[in-house]
Amino acid sequence: MAIQAPGVGSGLDVNSIVSQLMAIERQPIDRLDTKQSLITAQISAYGRFSGKLSDFQDAMEKLSSASEFQIFSGVSNDESTFTAEVDSDASAGSYSVAVTALAERDKVASNAFTDTASTVGEGTLTIFAGSDSFDVVIDGTNNTVAGIRNAINNATDNTGVTASIVTDDDGAHIVLSSDDTGTENALKVTVADLSDGSNIDDSGLSSLAYEAGVVVHRAAISTAADAVVNIDGFTVTSSSNTITGAVSGLTINAKSVGSSTLDVTRDDAAITESVQSFSDAYNALRTEIKSQRSGQLEADSTLLTLERQLSSILNSGSTITGSSFSYVSQIGLSTDDTGTMSINSSKLTEVMSSDFSSFVNLFSASGEGIAVKLEAMADQFLESGGLIDARKTGLDDQLDRIEDQKFRIEDRLISVERRIRSQFSALDMLVSNLTSTGNFLSQQLAAMPAANQS
Questions:
Q1: Residue 93: how many CB atoms within 10 A of its CB?
Q2: For residue 1, is pLDDT > 90?
Q3: What pTM does this model have?
Q4: Contact between 151 and 162 (Cβ < 8 Å)
Q5: What percent of the chain has pLDDT above 90?
Q6: Phi, psi at residue 177, to the nearest 5°?
């Protein structure tokens, strides 16, 4: 059987013709590809825009609550005596602080044993740290100095006691220490001694019994004590060297016995930094809007809507409760001809010094402050189901529809190419047959007698 290929019989370049015709048929897909690329670029542009708007939202959040302006720093004039931490509940002022006693933890040492492998005894230790206690059973598996130490430390219900071993010239001592300081965490050890039947003598397991002022076989290395701090003449006792709650918003960390002063001042530098973040975020958002308006989102109404709302909030001049200011320009924030915002530091410092309350309320007055409104505006655009989310969802839906269209067209083009190729194959066969017939007739005519006559 003869092998046939399109165009062999007729001389027609069938494959080339079919390819060119199919390229024309694929033009709708090419247009859809272009549209798809444009929509994908718009989605990416919205992603970048959302990021800038989110940064702007974060900057507004730092100024939209009055508590955000309660930024204080506490300075101890003798940090070897005490240090201090302050939070938003603090108030500016100076305090006289005297540390008269430091909190101590209870620590007790046993008598000396030959070494860590020495047998102590058997029974049950009940160890108290204040009112909390736990039991440790001592038997033939753990009745040595080292075994008792490990049993105490590994007890699953240990309430805050650490055991260690100190070996000196006399031998190995079991040392018990409360994890926390203060009299409320004082140590006590009671013993049910199975070694010799006595629970309070100085032999066997009972040699570990201890209660301050009652059963004292042991040497107290340090005694549980509370910290005592005098603040402006008021005495505060604490089980910890960290004293909180004595002065609203202040935490004092006692370091040593002594006295000094604590100065609490408003941290205007940190507040200025937040205002600078406001300005920077505004400028970054404006730059992003400008970039997108001349780029992928040139004809998009969402940017125009946001730009109008942004301008309206900053330039409305509305009266704000608790503030003598209505514009950010009144506190040292201004914009130039290009819309870029900058800070006049001297003006800002002057306003914070002269009318801090109005300054705070300009940004943070409930429902009225500029930062409050701008944050709410950003929320409206960024929230799930909000303007940007709805726009991106619409673009995603367009991409899905384009994919469906392309699939249907591709499916149809398979049939179209099959039909065209079939038609040209038939044409190729017809031309081939006609050519063969023509050649045959030419041969027959040339062989006729009349054809040989001159």
A1: 13
A2: no
A3: 0.59
A4: no
A5: 44
A6: -135, 130
Asked if 182 contacts 226 with a C-beta cutoff of 8 angstroms, the reply is yes
The amino acid at residue 192 is A
The three-state secondary structure class of 302 is helix
State the Cα–Cα distance between residues 367 and 370, nearest whole angstrom.
9
SS3 297: coil
Supply the DSSP symbol for 417: H
3-state secondary structure of 446: helix
Alpha helices in 316-364 (DSSP H): 345-354, 356-364
93: left (phi over 0), alpha (psi -120 to 50) or beta: left
CA–CA distance, 119 with 122 (Å, rounded to integer): 9
Identity of the amino acid at 395: L
Per residue in 144-193, pLDDT (tens digit) is: 999 999 999 999 999 999 999 999 999 999 999 999 999 999 999 999 99
220 versus 78: which is more confidently predicted? 78
- Compute the distance between CA of residue 97 and CA of residue 91 in angstroms, rounded to an integer: 16
Please answer whether residues 331 and 348 qualify as being in contact, where contact means their C-beta atoms are separated by less than 8 angstroms: yes
Q: In what side-by-side order are the strands of the sheet with 258-266?
A: 72-76, 258-266, 93-101, 227-231, 234-238
| CA atoms lying within 13 Å on the CB side of residue 198 | 9
Q: Are strands 132-138 and 161-167 parallel, antiparallel or unpaired?
A: unpaired
SS3 of the chain: helix, strand, coil, percent, to 5:
45, 25, 30
* Order of all β-strands in the sheet with 82-86: 82-86, 250-254, 242-244
How many whole angstroms separate alpha carbon 357 and alpha carbon 38?
50
Distance of alpha carbon 310 from alpha carbon 288, whole angstroms: 14
At a CB cut-off of 8 Å and minimum separation 6, what does 355 contact? 324
Question: What number of CA atoms fall less than 13 Å from residue 84's CA on the CB side?
Answer: 28
* Residue 419 burial class via C-beta count within 10 angstroms: exposed 0-12, middle 13-18, buried 19 and up: exposed
For residue 217, the model assigns a pLDDT of 61
DSSP 259-290: EEEEEEEE-HHHHHHHHHHHHHHHHHHHHHHH
67 vs 360: CA distance, rounded Å: 9
Confirm if 92 and 267 have CB atoms less than 8 A apart. Answer: no
Quick one: which H or E segment has residue 206?
A: none
Contacts of 89 by beta carbon, 8 Å cutoff, 6+ apart: 70, 248, 249
* Phi/psi of residue 125, nearest 5 degrees: -95, 130
